[in-house]
Amino acid sequence: MIMKKIATFILFVAGFFLFASNADAAECTATSTSSCVVSTSFSFSNTTDGINGSITISTGGTLTLLNGYSVGATSFLLTGGTMVVATGASLKPGTTTVYMLDADSDGYPASTTTKYFESAAGRRSVSDLTSLSTADCYDSSANAKPGQTTYYADDRGDESYDYNCDSATTKRRLSCTSPVCSACSVTCDYIDASGEGTACGTTGINAGYASATRNNDEYGNCVSCTGSGTTTTTMECR
Asked: Which N-terminal residues, if any, form the signal peptide (predicted)?
């Protein structure tokens, strides 16, 4: 791969005041979305990549563009650093917005390695995403996303109940014993005798102790709780 070093390269797009605005910019990383600075050594990880802002290469810093890579930014500013541009690499100054595909608008991209310089249906600005490094597991439902804590009685749209993207299905109700004093006024959920409960989205006896009674001693202190009855519910999962 043939490299050509650009020792003195200053490209202005935003004008004089861009220097001042970048003075406090953070170090460029793989998840940078806005103006950043290269003070050591940095190379983008995706063949199409960039930020919604300017890239400043300061003294001692080196920005490397690999063969076949295309990097966009509003401007590239050399203030004593170095740019190493491989044959086949291209700079895209004047790029104001970099996009990733997030069709369900839940903040997680369908792919963490694919970016675009043009807007299109389903694409969102990288600055609007919750994460650039964590991919969505199902980009057709905003409820299905990494870290989801809510359980659902209906599948997410593809017959799967993996709403939190952990590659597993977790039922909402766990096993529990008879109610204790502190829980006498609430329902105590439990899995049926098999320990599994009904299948996700199906209805059956999944909860017990629909009512509970607090048994006090003569001084009003709770000594036990008793309960009976079962409740038919629809199993929720995530």
From this structure: 1-25
